[in-house]
């Protein structure tokens, strides 16, 4: 097994929870309430800006030119997705620029972005990279799973198609390859830190969707 295979196996219970949570099952069925998806896309736009910043910070710390180019390219890609996909969906779900500006990041979004920025800025480079991996890998797995069962008239088909696409799969494969290469070069203490960071980032992925589904605000009890 590769290092990333082990990461997935070690977090399989959490990954199964994510795959079967109401947000994703209703997204696949096309029955997710429009207001719930509206909340989600606003938060996802906030998140992707922070995610791009974490990728760019990590790129600046990369030890070789290939990793710099890969992570910097992914940072640009995150911004492109935010501007194109979210602009389309914000128009469809009647989210104006004023609505977006008036809606701050949720507690889950803020905590996830803070975790990624902190990891990118102060953790060892391999830990920074593996912290970013779940956003690629989990979204692709969920996208492929939903794509296989979604009907052609699913109102969320553009979102589904984006994360199930070959282009996104290529980006995921590149992140998996980079993670495995870094793990092979790392000592045992660093690999343990990488495992912990992957688990924490996967937990943040779950909480991000869950908070959007529940309509969590800063004053919502935990």
TrEMBL record:
Which molecular-function annotation in GO is an example for this chain?
Answer: thiaminase activity
Q: Per the record's keyword annotation, is Glycosyltransferase included, yes or no?
A: no
**Entry keyword Transport:** no
InterPro entries per the record?
Answer: Haem_Oase-like_multi-hlx, Thiaminase-2/PQQC, Thiamine_Salvage_TenA
Alphabetical list of SUPFAM superfamilies matching this protein: Heme oxygenase-like (SSF48613)
Sorted alphabetically, which keywords does the UniProt record give?
Hydrolase
Would you tell me the Gene Ontology cellular component terms? cytosol
The residue ranges of the Thiaminase-2/PQQC domain are 22-214
EC number(s): the record gives 3.5.99.2
| Name of one Pfam family that matches | TENA_THI-4
CDD domains in the cross-refs: TenA_C-like
The record's listing under PANTHER family reads:
BIFUNCTIONAL TH2 PROTEIN, SI:CH1073-67J19.1-RELATED
Q: What is this protein called?
A: Thiaminase/transcriptional activator TenA
Organism from which the protein derives: Sagittula marina
């Amino acid at each position: 097994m590769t290092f990333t295979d082990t990461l997935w196996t070690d977090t399989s219970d959490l990954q199964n929870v994510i795959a079967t949570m109401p947000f994703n099952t209703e997204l696949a069925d096309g029955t997710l309430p429009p207001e719930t998806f509206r909340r989600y896309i606003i938060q996802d736009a906030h998140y992707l800006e922070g995610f791009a910043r974490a990728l760019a910070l990590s790129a600046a710390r990369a030890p070789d030119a290939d990793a710099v180019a890969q992570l910097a390219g992914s940072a640009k890609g995150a911004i492109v997705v935010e501007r194109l996909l979210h602009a389309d969906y914000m128009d469809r779900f009647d989210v104006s620029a004023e609505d977006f500006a008036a809606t701050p990041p949720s507690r889950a979004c803020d905590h996830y972005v803070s975790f990624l920025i902190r990891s990118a800025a102060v953790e060892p480079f391999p830990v920074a990279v593996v912290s970013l991996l779940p956003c690629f890998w989990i979204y692709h797995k969920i996208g492929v799973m939903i794509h296989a069962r979604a009907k052609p008239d699913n109102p969320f088909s553009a979102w589904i198609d984006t994360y199930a696409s070959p282009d996104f799969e290529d980006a995921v494969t590149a992140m998996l390859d980079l993670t495995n290469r870094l793990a092979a070069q790392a000592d045992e203490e660093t690999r343990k830190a990488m495992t912990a960071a992957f688990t924490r980032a996967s937990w943040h992925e779950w909480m991000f969707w869950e908070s959007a589904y529940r309509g969590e605000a800063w004053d919502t009890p935990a």
